[in-house]
Amino acid sequence: MIFPLAPGPSPLYHCPMFRQPSSVQFFLPSWIEEFAREYSVVENPAARMAFVIAASRRNAEEKTGGPFAAAIFQKDTGKLVSLGVNLVTPQGLSMLHAEMVAFALAQRRLGTYDLGKKGLAQHELVASSEPCAMCFGAIFWSGVRRVVCAAEDADVRSIGFDEGPKLPHWQETLRSRGIEVVCGTGRQEAAAVLARYAESGGHIYNSREAG
Length: 211
Description:
By secondary structure, the chain is of the alpha/beta class. It has helices spanning 32-37, 45-61, 88-91, 98-110, 133-142, 153-158, 170-176, 187-199, and strands at 69-74, 80-85, 123-129, 146-151, 180-183.
């Protein structure tokens, strides 16, 4: 004999005690706004990188996150649109890499998910290190037209961070989408920030941690 199912949600999915957050927020370190105000608009990409590397150093020194920073600039003028730093450990969200924070802030400021939207100035991402697997993927959807990075993948991995399974020819992949890539700008200075972070006992987090 077959009994009809009772109306309403399937009992397999009925979970009256289920609760999840209705929103997700993250907060920037208290020092970052004043730090960003000290930036002077410059057309020289190397000077923009020096500013970003200084932010990565400050984030590590203040113990407000990992030794990484990234910023969105107008590509041609050098105007700062957003400044992000790594917030993973203090905020408890694995997605809060510096690039992801910078993208989110720029998109909120400009009111669009597409930083390459028609009518906007072209934008660039300047990051203190090469993008990891997650941030590499986000670059495609962000709309930036240029990526400038300092420390290389090997520098980041050398202190224990897991950058994920990034494509070996990631630069060419971005270029094939019309995104300019410039690497190695300020590499020595950025790598020194990473080394100091590790030497000072900074937390090296990965997807699977022992203990």
